[in-house]
Amino acid sequence: MSTPPIPPAAQPSLRWRLTVGFLAIFAVTGLGVAGALLATRTVDDALERVVTLADQDRRLGRVGEGVREFYIHQAHLALGMAHGEHLALTRKARQMLQRGLDRLAERPGPVDVAALRATVARLDALLDDRFLPALAAGHGEHARHIHHEAAGDVQRVVDALEAYRVEVKQAIVEARAGADAAAARARAVSAGALGAALLLALGVGLWTTRAIVGPLDRLRAAATALPGAPEGTRVPADGPPEIASLGATLNQVLAALDEQRQARAEAETLAALGRVAGGIAHEINNPLGVILGHARFIEKAGGRGAEDGAVIAREARACKAIVQDLLDYARPGAGRAEACDLADLAGAAADRLEGCAVSGAGRPVRGDRRRLEQVLYNLMTNGLAFGQAVQVQVADDGEGVAVTVVDDGPGLDPADLEQVFQPFFTTRERGTGLGLAIARAVAQAHGGRLTAAPGPGGRFTLWLPAAEAA
Questions:
Q1: Which fold has domain 337-465?
Q2: CATH number for the segment(s) 240-331
Q3: pLDDT for 191-203, tens place per residue?
Q4: How many Å separate Cα 278 from the centre of its chain?
Q5: Which of 117, 277, 368, 434 is most open to solvent, judged by the fewest CB atoms within 10 Å of its CB?
Q6: CATH fold match for the domains 240-331 and 337-465
Q7: In whole angstroms, what is the distance from residue 125 CA to residue 164 CA?
């Protein structure tokens, strides 16, 4: 009989594989997106800095423009050109310069706004306290001299503003370069994450496909070969748990079919034996009865033929026992069902033998008292055939009652555990091989079972459902 293959170590389930695969893809994609977002944030920060620096550059330009306008219109006043108009323009340029300084103070950056204000304050004082009074007094030459005196402060302001603007423009260039680099990193991270996700998806797909295709191919090949395979052949139950479960379920179906085939074969055997046993009982029992009667007559007559008569009688009785065994095996039905105490039946059987001890108790079972006692008697007789003493233990397991018969003999070989219940299989010199087969047939007819365990010591257990659970 072919045996099912030993399954390999448990493999991850398909659900686990897919879950881990998708989580890995999600994690890689998430890291890529997070990296891209981080790089984008860096780009946004760099661009925002560019905008801020550009705005600061414009503000510096406005301040520089205000300083120049302020100085130019003073020059026009010094030259005596349209005094009223250029004085108004000078005041306007001064206001524009003040607004520029105020806006510049909002985001000073590298600019020393306080120093610019101090310089502009000196120019204001020069204009209001010395330049305009000199013009009003008609001292044009003196006013022009004061104007030239202010040129130094104006130039210092303009030079400082230009220096600041150079720094700002350099910072703008650096910020733009940083934004470009961050954008390149974002593109690289996004492309890398996309590539890694695609490769990972491909790997997960191959990993899962290999886990499915191989076991399914083996399962399909084994299932295809089943019609011509010997009885007991099983399909592989390996691979992921889902596929292994499918193989195990199919093996359960095959095992059930084997049991059905075996049961059908046993039923056919029983039917055939029933027909044979009926014919034998009809054709042989009557002649055996005649032979046995004459043998007893010869035995009782005494003389030289008495010993021969005893031998003939003994062998005739053995033939009748074989015929009765055949009839019992062919008709193992429960007969009249009634409440039985297996401990009492075991005790009654043990009283008919020497060397048997019974212990334990259990709930009543329903069955044919005569047949059940005969089964227990046969089990004890079988034990005494191989040993000197037999221990019988009765126990209630909650669902039924088990009677275990143990002898002190060598016990059964593990290879004989199932064969020992087959008809005509025996390890005894004068055994018929029907006793244990009849016992199992009777147990099954009562809804129970009879099992054997390997040695040392012969061990047979008869289990029957309790009367309430029957």
A1: Heat Shock Protein 90 (3.30.565)
A2: 1.10.287
A3: 887 888 788 788 8
A4: 60
A5: 117
A6: no
A7: 25
